[in-house]
From TrEMBL, chain A:
One GO biological process term: glutathione metabolic process
Catalytic activity: RX + glutathione = an S-substituted glutathione + a halide anion + H(+)
EC number: 2.5.1.18
Domain DSBA-like thioredoxin: residue ranges: 8-210
Xref: InterPro entries: DSBA-like_thioredoxin_dom, GST_Kappa/NadH, GSTK, HCCAis_GSTk, Thioredoxin-like_sf
Organism of this sequence: Vombatus ursinus (Common wombat)
Protein name in UniProt: Glutathione S-transferase kappa
Residues forming the catalytic site: S16
Gene name as annotated: GSTK1
Pfam families the UniProt entry points to: DSBA
UniProtKB keywords: Transferase
From TrEMBL, chain B:
PANTHER family in the cross-refs: GLUTATHIONE S-TRANSFERASE KAPPA (PTHR42943), GLUTATHIONE S-TRANSFERASE KAPPA 1 (PTHR42943:SF2)
Boundaries of every DSBA-like thioredoxin domain copy: 8-198
Originating species: Vombatus ursinus (Common wombat)
UniProt xrefs under Gene3D superfamilies: Glutaredoxin (3.40.30.10)
Catalytic activity: RX + glutathione = an S-substituted glutathione + a halide anion + H(+)
InterPro entries: DSBA-like_thioredoxin_dom, GST_Kappa/NadH, GSTK, HCCAis_GSTk, Thioredoxin-like_sf
Record-given protein name: Glutathione S-transferase kappa
Domain of life from the UniProt record: Eukaryota
Active site: S16
Pfam families with a match to the protein in the record: DSBA
Keyword Transferase: yes
């Protein structure tokens, strides 16, 4: 392959269902397209605050629509996404601060595990309606992803360090500086330009900007590329 | 073709740029997919009021994003969409009441012209190029007069209410009736999902016309 992989930054928060959908699509395509996927754990709360935006579900018609939209996309994207029973409490009250700090620590110490641990956290909150705020919840997700008990405990301790807190803050600021008012955002660096794309529904446009082929949200893996 | 065409209702307002994108995609696919496309002129202002929503561009970051997004989609969808110079004045102050009443009158009196006249109005608001839609001066004058009749005003009101009852909080919405169910899809970026629900093939926003179908 003659050309360098194009850098893609996915800014996401496990609290955000559409972030999960965008994440899974890009994780599939990173083995097919000539891209270098950087996963960037961020805080959607910080982005909303910075932009003056509000969670869409706070508007009743948008909330109702989102629930139905996610049911369609569950099948279409083949991601086992399920709205938690007490949606508002999970999203608006409990939040994701510790979870996203944990993922920041994983990115710093065990970056090769970031994809799997992120997925396990989404599976807890957005598939099995399980908690992601308590220490034991996060340790359980980490172990399910393949980290040892010791590694998981060590990463959890790092969550209260300045190194991790400021890194999460900086990543969230970076998303804001790219113009984010929500998540997910995908920033693609191509032809000496950067483009910020909002949402899990701009992936076909992303393919177009990369000059790659769009095969829908569930592509066939390309033999020989893995 | 053994099966009946599936009914699709597109609720739109020419004030809405994403409505134009959704409109063009569906107008292309109506000649390819087994669908029966119904164009439903609506008032986005009424939908916003009913749902308590606000135009996204009122949030600065969303407005900035929309301008850039439309530049990308202009090329990707091959629709000559251009943000008007005085965007806020056009969208928030001038509005689209007469235009949408006019389209309602066109739908009642000259339904075969609705697609072309809708496009012409979008071209005027959302593009620099404007072409004639093909109505004669007399037809246009007659339709304009009908805009102030109860028949047209109430029809536009009813169509807008129908969109609200489907759960709209903005436009465009596409309502697809398939397998004895109705699904409301919001936005111009749910067309690939629409294809999936219809069991049809998605060829992107600019499909090759199927020979023998026109």
């Amino acid at each position: 392959m003659a050309s360098l992989p194009r850098k893609l930054e996915l800014f996401y928060d496990v609290l955000s269902p559409y972030s999960w959908l965008g994440f899974e699509v890009l994780c599939r395509y990173q083995h097919i397209w000539n891209i270098d996927l950087h996963l960037c754990p961020s805080l959607i709360g910080g982005i909303m605050k910075n932009s003056g935006n509000k969670p869409p579900a706070l508007l009743p018609q948008k909330g109702k629509y989102m629930f139905v939209d996610l049911q369609h996309l569950r099948k279409f994207y083949q991601v086992p996404i399920q709205v938690p029973k007490d949606f508002f409490s999970v999203i608006l009250e409990k939040g994701s601060l510790t979870a996203m700090r944990f993922l920041t620590a994983v990115k710093q110490e065990n970056p090769e595990m970031l994809e799997r641990v992120s997925r396990e956290l989404w599976m807890r909150v957005w598939s099995r309606d399980e908690d992601i705020t308590e220490p034991q919840s996060i340790l359980a997700a980490a172990e399910k992803a393949g980290l040892s008990k010791e590694q998981a405990k060590s990463l959890l301790e790092k969550c209260s360090t300045d190194k991790v807190k400021s890194s999460l803050r900086e990543t969230t600021e970076a998303a804001c500086n790219y113009g984010a008012f929500g998540l997910p955002i995908t920033v693609v660096h191509v032809d000496n330009k950067s483009h910020m794309l909002f949402g899990s529904d701009r992936m076909e446009l992303l393919a177009h900007l990369l000059g790659e082929q769009w095969q829908g949200p569930v592509p066939s893996p390309v033999k020989g590329k893995l």
